[in-house]
Amino acid sequence: MSENRILARIRRRARLPVGAGLALGIGDDCAVFRPTSNREDLVFTTDLLLEDVHFKRDTHSAADIGWKTLARGLSDIAAMGAEPRFCLVSLAVSHDLSERWIDGFYSGLLALARRYGTPLAGGDLARAAKIACDIVVCGSVPRGRALLRSGARPGDRIYVSGLLGGSALGLETLRGRALKRHLRPAPRLELGRYLRQRLAATAAMDLSDGLSIDLHRLCMESRAAAELDAPLPVFPGASLDQALHGGEDYELLFTLPPDRNPPAFFNGLPLTRIGFVRRGAPGRVTFFGRPLPPGGWDHFR
Amino acid sequence: MSENRILARIRRRARLPVGAGLALGIGDDCAVFRPTSNREDLVFTTDLLLEDVHFKRDTHSAADIGWKTLARGLSDIAAMGAEPRFCLVSLAVSHDLSERWIDGFYSGLLALARRYGTPLAGGDLARAAKIACDIVVCGSVPRGRALLRSGARPGDRIYVSGLLGGSALGLETLRGRALKRHLRPAPRLELGRYLRQRLAATAAMDLSDGLSIDLHRLCMESRAAAELDAPLPVFPGASLDQALHGGEDYELLFTLPPDRNPPAFFNGLPLTRIGFVRRGAPGRVTFFGRPLPPGGWDHFR
Looking at the complex, does the CB of residue B227 fall below 8 Å from at least one CB of chain A? Predict the structure, then answer.
């Protein structure tokens, strides 16, 4: 097995679709993207996915890891209300893994990439002691229209999509629908676009580290406080603690002015009002009147 | 130490310059870039830098690692003849490293970022067993004018900038100017722009893995062969083997039509003709008439 041969395989499999805006994909020092309009903003995200930090090899197949690597990036694109345009992926594989494992990784990643029209335009490949993946996704959004964390205003209502705590439950029990949620999260791209175009959400972000810490961050950016005063949409079987603090649900957290009512479901996905934004110490979150310190995932705590 | 606190520190230090084209930097789900013209192509690269693969902690300070992480990305931008616009960096730090180490990493990275006007627009932060860095750099180039690997034609002459083998020598001896070359490589951005604007180079790439394998790759993309028939510009003290196969020199390899003569020096940097492109099996490289198999760095050999 040689690096050149592996790269040639990936390149064949990631053949660029016509008209994707990419003038050049895998095979040069850089990928080349040709913006078709100067009425669009481009949005960029990068996320690490590391063995024994974000996943374990005995619970995640190669294809699961490839899928999840891209899903993390696409979830950030969804949170901006943007359309994905292309992605790049850096992959370090450990010495004991075969070319078949690498194939599996790209199968999972490319399956999700095809579903959301996100061609793989480049990346990097290395060997290391443990698996390390880094995803880069570029998306586009009409100029000045990206959904930000900083736009929530006192009085706005706070909503979440889907059911919370499923990923944490799946990680704990390693079975059932919860495990599937953990292994193959679905980026909420259609919902993100709907929040921007139809609901004109004032703020949005994706739930990657846990509701309590992510809502705290949204409030910090919006210089506001929040009160959670309604039942959370808890994933069947998950605990309240998993719904409040569990990471990796990749649902969207968003805010709307009080006079704007979203439907109860969007394409079958529940949209639940869980609280409201209010004046107060920036970042302070209360849950039925009591302080809710940011829990969830913090690499440095 | 908490993730939020570290992120707040990085964000203060990476404050965006006015007019950089960035509408939004660190602090949201994505960075937002606003293209000012639709006459430009955007180029993208991503590169891993991993502990015990690309560097060792006892030879590289935190600031060296930060510098080198960005230098790898900027070198790819230089190879396209592009201008850097912004960067993102993902960093996983090991558990025994302090906030001071993280500060040092960003000091090295931001020193190079300032030198080349490349604001840090976002990234990711995690803890892991070993240090892992992934850099993303976006650059811009007039539409359709990026320097590619695929443009070399039989008869073109092959050139390299600078002196080869210095980084490999520095890694071996761990001292002197060679070590400095290894720790703090200088991306050849001014030269890349000059190659595009003034010399209209037919092909270019950066030397990251070693001349023999990188020239092989350039020839593969150009569907041509190459003969090296002139003395190499060898770094003082380095061996011919280090000059032919040593990685991480981050010099530029480029081709020009035979009637186009570059100066012997560009801003003090020697430009040396080392061979010529010819018809033949794609990727085949000969050195004074003998086959030169691709050596250099291959993670998978």
Answer: no
Domain check: are B103 and B231 in the same one? no
Q: Could you report how far apart the first and last alpha carbons of chain A are, in Å? A: 41
ipTM here: 0.94
pTM for this predicted structure: 0.95
Residues of chain B numbered 142-181 and touching chain A (CB < 8 Å):
143-144, 146, 148-150
Is the domain of B38 the same as that of B105?
A: yes
- Model confidence pLDDT, tens digit, residues B34-54: 988 778 999 999 999 999 999
In a domain, B300, yes or no: no
Asked if residue A256 and residue A138 are part of one domain, the reply reads no
pLDDT band at residue A269 using 50, 70 and 90 as cut-offs: very high
Give the pLDDT confidence score for residue B17 in this predicted structure: 72
**Please, what sign has the CA dihedral across residues A184, A190, A196, A202?**
negative
| A2 touches B298 (CB < 8 A) | yes
User: Which of B50, B57, B299, B301 is best to mutate for the A interface (most A CBs within 10 A)?
Assistant: B299
Inter-chain contact B50–A92, Cβ cutoff 8 Å?
yes
CATH number of the CATH domain containing A204: 3.90.650.10
- Is residue B209 in some structural domain? yes
Are B122 and B209 in a shared domain?
A: no
Q: Give a yes or no: residue B89 inside a domain.
A: yes
Residue A163 sits in the same domain as residue A225 = yes
CA B223 to mean position of chain CA atoms: 23
Count of A-B CB contacts under 8 Å: 232
Nearest-by-Cβ selection for A46 from B3, B90, B139: B90
- Does residue B258 share a domain with residue B171? yes
A91-132 pLDDT, tens per residue?
A: 999 989 999 999 999 999 999 999 999 999 999 999 999 999
Buried b (16+ CB within 10 A) or exposed e, B107-116: ebbbebbeeb
Per-chain mean pLDDT for chain A: 94
On whether any CB of chain A is under 8 Å from the CB of B80, the answer is yes
Q: How confident is the model over A179-206, as a mean pLDDT?
A: 97
A163 and A275 part of one domain? yes
- Please identify, among A142, A166, A186, the residue that sits at the C-terminal boundary of a domain: A142
* CA A293/CA B212 separation, integer angstroms: 57
B64 vs chain A: nearest CA distance in angstroms?
20
- Which chain A residue has its CA at the smallest distance from B204's CA? A29
Q: Which two tokens mark A91?
A: 């992959």
Mean pLDDT value of segment A48-52 = 95
In a domain, A207, yes or no: yes
- The verdict on A133 and A177 lying in the same domain is no
Mean pLDDT, rounded, for A247-257: 97
Give the distance from residue A268's alpha carbon to the nearest chain B alpha carbon, in angstroms: 25
Q: Contact at 8 Å (CB) between B237 and B169?
A: yes
Domain extent at residue B42: 3-142
Among A126, A142, A158, the domain-final residue is A142
Question: Looking at the complex, does the CB of residue B95 fall below 8 Å from at least one CB of chain A?
Answer: no
Nearest CB neighbour to A132, from listed B6, B77, B132: B132
pLDDT at A299: 73
B231-260 pLDDT, tens per residue?
999 999 999 999 999 999 999 999 999 999
What is the total count of domains within chain B?
2
Q: Which residues of B touch A124 (CB under 8 A)?
A: 46-48, 134
**Which among B54, B79, B298 has CB closest to A2?**
B298
Among the partner-chain residues A1, A50, A221, the one whose CB lies closest to the CB of B128 is A50
Burial class (CB in 10 A: 0-12, 13-18, 19+), B300: middle
